[in-house]
Amino acid sequence: MRIGEGMMMYSVVIPAAGQGKRMKAGKNKQFIELDQSPLIAHTLKVFEEDERCKQIILVVNENEIDAMQEIISTYKIQKVSKIALGGKERQQSVFEGLKQLSGPDEIVLVHDGARPFIRKEIIHELVTTTEQEGAAIVGVRMKDTVKRVMNQTVEETIDRSELWSVQTPQAFWRDALLTAHKQAEDQQFQATDDASVMEWVRARVVMVEGDYSNVKITTPEDLLMAEAILRKRRMEHDSNRTRF
Ligand SMILES: Nc1ccn([C@@H]2O[C@H](COP(=O)(O)OP(=O)(O)OP(=O)(O)O)[C@@H](O)[C@H]2O)c(=O)n1
Ligand SMILES: C[C@](O)(CO)[C@H](O)COP(=O)(O)O
Fold first, then answer.
1. So which residues are the signal peptide here (predicted)?
2. Which residue range(s) make up the domain with 110?
């Protein structure tokens, strides 16, 4: 399905059914407020406002359905077409979300609810790359030296010129991703991202260079980073408005 100038549209599965244990907030971090709005509302808003996004499949904890519905209503997120129930691991949650999609094959993005700062330009580059190459993920080059450590002893320094810190969205053709997830479930293959599931079935996955602001809100320090990113983006927005 395309819109103006032939731009391919996409569906997005947003896993938000984790526990947020590393945040140590005593609740799912999706409900932590950033600039007076819940984290998940920031992420949903990005896709709600993207004209190329056809629909959002939100994956939630069963005991948080009402809370999530309230956020969807409060922030007028009209593109949430389905709510799926998450599983014990992220991979299972994503699979449950994918199962809600049907119809002709399409491009599907999987994007962490905990990554509120993804930029629309990167999303569009992922969609275009997937249309051409089959699968695309976003990442950034490693900034630190990386070493393999065992029993607190350095075993090896890894050449970081070939290493990337991988983020989301991760973009695929839906049928290929669903098939790979089904095989992974049948053979109990577990991975921490969807690209790994596709790599496991020997699919080619292309890396798109993103930016360092697309952080995953995971530990308390990330909230400080988030406030700084929000402040910077507000300043960018204000200066753009005054310029024209
Ligand atoms: N069983 C799970 C685990 C994670 N997620 C989602 O996957 C994204 C990335 O996971 P992570 O950052 O690890 O979130 P949590 O699992 O909540 O964090 P923690 O590991 O600290 O509990 C988050 O949006 C999270 O809500 C999910 O939908 N279902
Ligand atoms: C998918 C992901 O965000 C890519 O970096 C990451 O693997 C999620 O890991 P988590 O432990 O589930 O947060």
1. none
2. 2-140+168-243
